[in-house]
Write a structure and sequence with these properties.
By secondary structure, the chain is mostly helical. It has three domains: 35 residues; 79 residues, Winged helix-like DNA-binding domain superfamily/Winged helix DNA-binding domain (Arc Repressor Mutant, subunit A), CATH 1.10.10; 43 residues. Helix content is 72%, strand content 6%. It is built from seven helices and two strands, in the order H-H-H-H-E-E-H-H-H. Strands 1-2 form a two-stranded antiparallel sheet. Helix 3 packs across helix 4. The longest helix has 39 residues. The radius of gyration is 22 Å and the shape is flat. The protein starts with a helix and ends with a helix.
Length: 176
């Protein structure tokens, strides 16, 4: 029985090390992708703030307010507003007053913004094929599945954490 427990602890420790290495490799790869340059020297993937802003607007499925962008981009309302104003000057988004609340401003993609999103989704084919050369589709599908599950779990955990923090704040306010 004692040797069984020792073996179980060793397996658990080995699994823990492997899991840590796995997550570390994901982070290092994500960092490398953020810094990657295509053959023309341009950013190979699009992670800069403007690209994140356009994706957030699209993901929202409509015309988010500055407050919505604050939440979607994980930045202050003022920073989200500043990035939206900059994007409007560049012509990739348009700003308009919310019909329900004239004090609120909404942000929508322009046709230029939608075209920019399409370009962002398609890394240069030659660069992408060189990067993925020799990788078979089946392991890529499996890896994509694993990464999607991890992302969904992280998103769910974040949502639950924010909800519990709101509950703690509400409970603290009620006690006052």
């Amino acid at each position: 029985m004692d040797s069984n427990r020792r073996q179980h602890r060793t397996v658990a420790r080995d699994d823990s090390v492997e899991a840590t290495l796995f997550l570390h490799e994901i982070v290092m790869t994500a960092d490398a992708l953020q810094e990657a340059r295509a053959f023309d020297g341009e950013s190979a993937m699009h992670f800069e703030t403007r690209s994140r802003l356009l994706r957030a607007i699209e993901r929202c499925g409509g015309a988010p307010t500055f407050s919505d962008l604050e939440r979607l981009l994980g930045m202050s309302r003022q920073a989200a507003r500043g990035h939206a104003l900059e994007a409007a000057r560049a012509g990739v988004v348009e700003l308009f007053q919310a019909p329900v609340d004239r004090r609120a401003w909404q942000v929508a993609l322009t046709s230029s913004g939608r075209q920019a999103l399409e370009r962002q989704r398609k890394p240069q084919l030659a660069w992408m094929l060189t990067l993925l050369n020799g990788l078979e589709p089946a392991p890529m599908r499996t890896t994509r599945h694993v990464l999607r599950v991890l992302r969904q779990r992280l998103e769910r955990y974040d949502k639950e954490l924010r909800a519990s923090q709101r509950g703690l704040v509400s409970a603290a306010s009620a006690r006052r």
